[in-house]
Design a protein that fits this description.
single chain; 320 residues; 2 domains; five-stranded antiparallel sheet; four-stranded antiparallel sheet
Length: 320
């Protein structure tokens, strides 16, 4: 029975085939490249080179030509040395994925990847690929930063996926690669609504106080669709530059009190539309410096304004 248990443990310790395609489990710390993480296969040129060696061996066997044998064995030695150098181009590297700034849905997260070379040998022509390919060289005893990008599709925590580090050094006959997976999720904010709905004054109780709005240019009130005759200086050019439509900024004279942005009173046909509209109101309120509170089912953030309150509201919307 003990022999069977030992065999089962050895079978579990054997490298799984999934590591060849998916890599190891996501890591929260730096990844050290060793023989377990590096894979090598011949390239197209490498297969052609191996075929040439086989042909030379057949010619030497058929014609009993010692010079042909000598050339074939020299090429076999070159292949062995090339495999060793291709493996060493990745072996020993330390890779760390830095934290990325939050982005909105549809934007690409910028992930800084740090490649540390603790050896005395320079690493040439390394290829880092996620959605795009980036080539980089790392000097001896140095750290090189590479920015990789990952497109976000939905709000919440976004995993960047598997990063592939590849080397074909020195002759391009073999390709060594390692699959890197990091447990460093990126926070993705909701996509702001493009419609220019005014702030929910009734939800904040201001409509019951009989405060009349008189057209003016003191306090920002919201974005509305452009109409012929609106002042050019009030056009919201940022929305127009992003191809979101043409809107104008509307203002009011009275001193605005704190807004209450409540999910229950937000217009929309579903959760995502309501969250997007709340995200737009949060951005507009922060842009004009007006205090605002956010009320979601199970969570209420008190009125505030500023970078920290702004980030807390967007994070709450992202994780709602």
């Amino acid at each position: 029975m003990s022999g069977l248990g030992k065999f089962w443990r050895e079978l579990q310790a054997h490298p799984r085939l999934s590591r060849f395609f998916l890599g190891e489990a996501p890591s929260k710390t730096a990844i050290h490249l060793n023989h377990r993480r590096i894979f090598i296969v011949p390239t197209r040129q490498g297969f052609g080179f191996l075929l040439l060696i086989v042909v030379l061996l057949l010619i030497g066997f058929v014609y009993n030509n010692n010079l042909t044998y000598l050339l074939a064995f020299l090429l076999i030695g070159l292949v062995i040395v090339t495999i060793l150098h291709t493996f060493r181009s990745l072996s020993g590297l330390l890779l760390t994925l830095g934290s990325a700034k939050p982005v909105f849905v549809g934007e690409r997260a910028n992930l800084p990847l740090y490649i540390e070379n603790p050896s005395q040998v320079k690493r040439y022509h390394l290829e880092v690929s996620l959605e795009e390919q980036v080539f980089v060289g790392v000097e001896a005893m140095s750290v090189q930063q590479v920015n990789v990008y990952s497109t976000t599709l939905q709000r919440g925590w976004h995993q960047c996926g598997t990063i592939r580090l590849t080397s074909r050094f020195p002759l391009g006959l073999f390709r060594a690669w390692s699959l890197l997976r990091f447990a460093c999720p990126v926070l993705v904010y909701p996509k702001p609504a493009v419609s220019g709905l005014a702030f929910p004054e009734q939800a904040s109780g201001e409509g019951q106080q009989g405060q009349a709005r008189r057209g003016g240019v003191e306090d920002f009130y919201g974005l509305l669709e452009y109409r012929a005759g609106d002042a050019i200086k009030h056009i919201h050019w940022k929305s127009y530059a992003k191809a979101q439509g043409l809107f104008t900024k509307h203002y009011s004279h009275f001193q605005a009190s704190a807004l209450t942005l409540d999910y229950a009173y937000t217009p929309g046909y579903g959760v995502e539309e309501r969250v997007s509209q709340l995200c737009r109101w949060v951005m507009d309120a922060e842009a004009c410096g007006r205090p605002y509170s956010l009320s979601l089912p199970g969570l209420t953030l008190p009125p505030g304004c500023g970078e920290r309150h702004y980030a807390s509201c967007l994070q709450a919307l992202a994780l709602f």
